[in-house]
Task: structure prediction
Amino acid sequence: MSLTVVGSIAFDAVTTPFGSREKMLGGSAVHFSLASSFFTDVRVVGPVGDDFGEAEYAVLRNRGVITDDIEHVPGGETFFWRGHYEYDLNTAHTDDTRLNVFGDFAPKLSDASRESDVLFLANIQPDLQREVREQMPDAKFVALDSMNLWIDIARDSLLKTIEGVDCVLLNDAEIRMLTRKPNLVQAARELRAIGPKVVVAKQGEYGAALLTEEGYFGLPAYPLETVNDPTGAGDSFAGGFVGYLAATGGEDLSHETLCRAMAYGTAIASYNVEEFGTERVSRLTRDEITARVGELQKITNFVDEPIALRA
Ligand code: AMP
Result:
């Protein structure tokens, strides 16, 4: 079972209350591929410029990510994002976005990438996401992420792209913004009505919620004492979630399987935020992931002892 991801491959400049980095490897497709590489073969699709060198390729290849479909644009510069966070780490403030090589990117998937069973459309212009989706008509499972920018400037295109996917992962505020419905349960139902059977609402440090026809599942974030940089948390979550579903065949969307996938996404995202950018996940081990999934199971279980409630 293999997985193809298209999205941004980036250099990020990030400042949080706990430190800053001027130029670190980032991008939605990068964070996603590192996380999903624990579950299956991952092929990453996206353009980079001359400034993207061996050190950056090495981070991906050291985790076994297949980089053959990274398109090097001679003379170009890699996508660049600058952002900062205040003490409320749930909200990223964008200070600068330079599309650079994404400006005239026309995704062309290799035969090998097109043959993947699972496709993740990481955050990127929704027209591009749709072009990729159309190149993989036989994918068994397709999931999508996006962001407030595209809801603001390309809402109709994003809705059209969502019609063609099985699963949407968005921040809960973005789901409300996109559907123009203040209630999350109603908003998720509205999204499911246009196509995707599975809606995941990411809620930053509060965790994530799964909303399907079959039911609801809420999982808190892993309670960390140290958080340094939330950049990439959403993509790492998606990498764990979609990676898990790919590893189990891509077609089992039972409530139990989706809940377990949520736990793997949550565990990997929790490591991501401990350090800046890809620093932590690039040296993460499978034992560490398993341990944190076990901890999550413990902290979300309780045994009810019914007592006589007063009238
Ligand atoms: P998140 O997982 O939501 O924290 O995503 C963080 C990543 O999104 C960063 O590494 C950025 O490079 C990337 N990013 C920020 N803005 C955009 C954009 N407009 N399009 C694609 N990727 C972006």
The chain has one domain: 2-299.
